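Data deposition worksheet. Section B asks for the primary sequence of the deposited chain exactly as it was used as input, without tags or linkers unless they were present during the calculation. Section C holds the resulting structure in token form. Section D is free text for depositor observations; keep each observation to a single sentence. Incomplete worksheets are returned to the depositor.
Section A, Depositor: J.P.
Section B:
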Amino acid sequence: MAERSDRAPARWRRPFLHWLDGVELGWAVPLLIACFVAIWTLYLAIAYAGGGLHPDTLEAWTLGRHFAWGYHKHPPLMGWIAAGWTSVFPLSDWSLQSMAMANAGLALVFVDRIARQFVTGDKRILVLLLLMLTPAYQFHAQRFNANAVLLAVWPLATWCFLRAFETRAASWAVAAGCTTALAMVGKYYSIFLVASFAFAALAHPARRAYFTSASPWISVVVGLAALSPHIYWLATTGAPTFSYALAHANGNVLSSLGEARNFLLGLAAAMIVSALTWVFIAGTRLKQFPADFAAMRPGLRLLFYVAIGTIALPVLTSLVMGTDLPSLWALQGLFLFAVLVVCGARYPIERFYTVNLTVIVAGVALAAVLVAAPIHAVYRNDHGYEEGRNFYAQVASELTREWRELTGTPLSAVSGDDSLAFATAFYSPDHPYYARPFESEYGSGLQRKTTPDRGWAAACFRGQDHCGRWMEWASSKVEHVVRREFRVQANLWGLPGLARQVIVLMVPPRGSGPAHEGAADDFSASRRRPIRLRDQQ
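Section C:
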């Protein structure tokens, strides 16, 4: 059937065949990736129409508001990217949703750069289509955080390392050093990618030629030089990111075995649809796998060793150190297996299958936008999110209004529940700075920007005991406090949804003027009973 279809294609297939003819002309792959980014950005806009951005995305934007070589929880790359993006595009949900999907699109561009080292034409498209069937480049990507930022950085670093190994040119060696450093300032989990590069180079038959050249040593020197500002930051700040990372290393042998099992099962689940699709496409030709593996090209063999390292090294580390090991930490490395499977097959793939897979991928995307996204939006409007995304904009608006009525000044700093604080910083017209709550756990009181002279506010959802306890602690540390409570309700396209109570704590700035007069009188009363405002509709 496949051969007959290729010889005499149906009329509806001809536009797709014309598109496939454009792969080597340079326009087919960009068109595919641009359509993928556009349609999944539209999905995010519809599916989350009644809710705010994910807290991880808001955190990335919050961190990036002031440039630093590191932040207290994460390395700085995600903050840098968010800051760069919002310096060009507006502060809005669609803007940061576009940023998340642009990152996924850029990842696919770099994957294609790797694939084209080994194959041409339709097989380049097949690699991308198989990856588009995984959840990594849509649902994982929409949570733009320290994990998602690696979607683009890992294939970029892998491409540069591959070229540096094969060519041993100084320019590619420099690029490999810079991009591996970039991966490290994305997330320290990238140490497994760097270690996999070293393992692959040592295991490859061409290791002598590589290590006796200047290429690996140029990469090491350049990589350390690029990392040196971050290393200096770690040395001068007490390495808070290391402390946060080591908090995930508190398991035992049994828990580590469970983590390793779930890690492998999670990655297998992420690839299962793509794997079954390839089995169907290859059919009986899968029998050629042993011969294809034995005849694997040197560059693909290098990628094979890298792929093995990115799976084996985290598992071994988890077993030895007792670390957590969620499978989502490794989703950015799935491209290696797609490249190996498609590019390692020495037989041609009929266009019949490529066109069919294109239609399937497009159909899934359209169904997601037209069916799944509205259903998801309606469901979440009624049932909400654990982090309370439905209420972010309303809480930010009401808290800002209350602060301005109380003090007559813009809100300069916000704390409390992390999600609400990130959201208030983003959605409030005052864009206050985020002040880390539970700062006593970090040992240094409130954030420097949050001084008594400028004042600050905090917000928690009712029922968040940990946040409530922090409010009580914070109230005892300042002289004047105003505590209030109001109700917010989700709203989707005019349909009322879930409602929640929000508790806010406001510490007015010193000498804030007439609007503040009498605020001190509210302190004792507000500590005894919350002041209830009119319902937020």
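Section D:
Residues 379 and 497 are 9 Å apart (CA to CA).
Residues 438-450, 513-537 have pLDDT under 50 and may be disordered.
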